[in-house]
Write a structure and sequence with these properties.
The chain is 27% helix and 8% strand. The longest helix is centred in the C-terminal third of the chain and has 12 residues.
């Protein structure tokens, strides 16, 4: 298990600058309709593995409060819109050249495991986590988005990122970026990572390589890497869902190596949501072994 290191002030300053102040009002975003031909998941409203959403002062009886669906004031339980499902329904097509992606990466359960939920600086890194994160930053545009509280997200990022790599992260978002009502924020509320929030954010939008020419991030070029499929409920065909990391340093296969291969394949797709819909990420399958004609 990693030991606590002294804080790197330059990383801290940059991470603080990346985080934007929360909106003054909770989100009132409502889910759009679902195409009749689209596959709908049951409205569970809670992922039992959602570990980062506990209240600041849990009860003393030893049991954590149950995870509850978000209230209407927090936007409720989202569903993919009809337009989203239609766009993802087409056959995948290869590009002539690869494109940079907006890669949105979760922390706990994805890149690391926190045995003590309230000790943000004490965690076990998933094998190759730092190298994977650095290569994503080298190749793509990266946003770190966790449902943990902002101060805990900052502590985790300080441990994972060098100052140089921290300076190249587009944004670091925590629990304050889900549009939760005050009461939901302080409960173990199921969080949903609505990618539209990222696409509409001025800082994230400006990070697109062709932003000045009208280019932007959308379902065709955005990937959400998380261990919870439920969090990707509003844009399911942009999700790369990993098995939850619980501290096994001998995990086989090494999941992040497979994810990196999958991202390399996605970069060649005209619209990555069509590819993920038709060929979702699967542990145990190497994208490097997939013929180009099958990938397309």
């Amino acid at each position: 298990m990693a030991e606590t290191d002294p804080k790197d002030s330059s990383v801290t300053r940059h991470l603080d600058a990346l985080r934007h102040p929360p909106a003054s009002k909770p989100s009132t975003t409502t889910a759009g309709p679902v195409a009749k031909s689209g596959t709908r998941r049951p409205a569970k409203g809670a992922d039992s593995r959602d570990r980062d959403d506990g209240p600041a002062n849990p009860s003393n009886h030893g049991d954590r409060d149950p995870i509850t669906p978000p209230s209407a004031a927090s936007g409720g339980i989202p569903e993919p819109t009809a337009a989203y499902l239609v766009r993802a329904s087409f056959a995948p097509m290869l590009r002539a050249t690869p494109q940079p992606l907006l890669v949105v990466i979760d922390l706990n359960g994805t890149l690391l495991h926190r045995p003590q939920k309230r000790a943000a600086t004490k965690f076990v890194e998933r094998p190759l986590a730092r190298a994977f994160l650095q290569r994503c930053i080298d190749k793509h545009r990266v946003v770190i988005w966790s449902s943990a509280r902002p101060e805990n997200v900052r502590h985790m990022c300080e441990r994972l990122l060098t100052p140089e790599y921290a300076s190249r992260v587009v944004a670091v978002w925590g629990r304050d970026r889900f549009g939760l009502s005050p009461s939901d924020y302080n409960r173990r509320t199921q969080c949903y990572k609505r990618l539209t929030r990222l696409w509409e954010d001025p800082v994230v939008r400006a990070s697109h390589p062709l932003a000045e020419q009208g280019g932007g991030w959308n379902q065709g070029n955005t990937v959400l890497i998380d261990d919870s499929a439920e969090k990707a409920r509003s844009e399911p065909h942009n999700a790369v869902t990993l098995p939850e990391f619980v501290g096994d340093m001998n995990e086989k296969p090494q999941v992040l190596t497979l994810v990196e291969e999958y991202l390399d394949t996605l970069a060649w797709q005209t619209d990555i949501s069509t590819y993920i819909r038709s060929r979702p990420f699967t542990v145990g399958r190497s994208e490097a072994a997939v013929p180009a004609q099958e990938q397309g």
